[in-house]
């Protein structure tokens, strides 16, 4: 009739199945005690191997019940033969179990070796890809450097070919100003001239736009239609005809307004 509430979840309080204490009456050996070595997670819940073990234990108990009593020498000899035969069967069964375990371990070992080989192959392939990528980068850098040096040498050869004899040439101002690709219009930065310097001298300066007095003077010349805008109110639409009927468009607009509300 009492209830409790804890701060723990059901999953946190879940334990192994409960195994109650037991008392064995004198003179009885329950078959269930043969499973006392099995615990939850180690044999329980029972699988195929546990069922086979239970069946073997039952067969062994049935076989022990058929053993002859040790009354005379002939019964002892027969008992010994039966026990030796059972021992050979148990050894054969153990050998089969060992072979099964060895096969399972061999399969696991094969899978581990296969996984290790795959990892080594992936690692080797990744290393080769990285090596090839580094070589490609080095190759591209070398090609860029060769192209840059080639362009530099070509410019030098063109400059030398202009004056093969090494004569001094006077400056031709007319030719420089007629050629828009000359140093006058497009000087090179490597000579020491930077076109971006003193760029503010090319900015257009206007008296009417940069000073307040100019703006006032410009505003005085503008017509009134520019500064004083006149807006005409729209005329309302006639929804009723001359004969007194409501137009279809007005009726549709009223219905739409009602639906919207």
Q: Can you describe this structure?
A:
With 261 residues, the protein is an all-alpha fold. It has a domain of 118 residues. It has 8 helices and 2 strands. The chain has a two-stranded parallel sheet. The longest helix has 90 residues. It is found in: Cytoplasm, Cytoskeleton, Cilium axoneme. Its main location: cytoplasm. This is Cilia- and flagella-associated protein 91. Keywords: Cell projection, Cytoplasm, Cytoskeleton. One of its GO terms (cellular component) is axoneme.
Q: Calculate the mean pLDDT score and round it.
A: 85
Q: How many E-type strands?
A: 2
Q: Helix count, per DSSP?
A: 8
Major beta sheet summary: 2 strands, parallel
Features of the shown structure:
261 residues; mainly alpha; two-stranded parallel ribbon; 8 helices; 2 strands
Secondary structure topology:
Elements (H helix, E strand, L loop, with lengths): L9 H4 L25 E2 L2 E2 L3 H19 L6 H90 L10 H6 L28 H4 L1 H10 L2 H4 L20 H13 L1
Short description:
With 261 residues, the chain is mainly α.
């Amino acid at each position: 009739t009492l209830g409790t509430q804890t701060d723990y979840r059901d999953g946190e309080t879940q334990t192994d199945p409960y195994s109650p204490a037991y008392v064995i009456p004198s003179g009885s050996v329950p078959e269930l005690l043969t499973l006392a070595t099995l615990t939850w997670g180690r044999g329980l819940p029972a699988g195929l191997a546990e069922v086979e073990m239970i069946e073997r234990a039952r067969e062994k108990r049935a076989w022990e019940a058929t053993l002859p009593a040790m009354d005379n020498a002939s019964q002892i000899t027969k008992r010994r033969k039966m026990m030796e035969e059972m021992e050979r069967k148990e050894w054969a069964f153990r050998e089969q179990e060992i072979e099964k375990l060895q096969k399972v371990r061999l399969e696991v070992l094969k899978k581990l070796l296969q996984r290790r080989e795959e990892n080594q192959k992936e690692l080797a392939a990744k290393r080769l890809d990285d090596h090839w990528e580094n070589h490609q980068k080095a190759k591209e850098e070398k090609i860029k450097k060769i192209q840059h040096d080639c362009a530099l040498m070509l410019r030098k050869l063109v400059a030398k070919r202009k004056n093969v004899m090494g004569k001094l040439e006077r400056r031709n101002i007319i030719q420089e100003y007629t050629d828009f690709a000359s140093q006058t219009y497009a000087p090179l930065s490597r000579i020491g001239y930077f076109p971006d310097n003193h760029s503010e001298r090319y900015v257009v300066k206007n008296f009417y736009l940069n000073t307040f007095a100019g703006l006032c003077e410009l505003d005085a010349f503008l017509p009134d239609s520019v500064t004083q805008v006149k807006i005409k109110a729209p005329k309302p639409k006639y929804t009723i005809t001359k004969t007194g009927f409501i137009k279809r468009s007005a009726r549709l607009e009223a219905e739409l307004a009602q639906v919207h509300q």
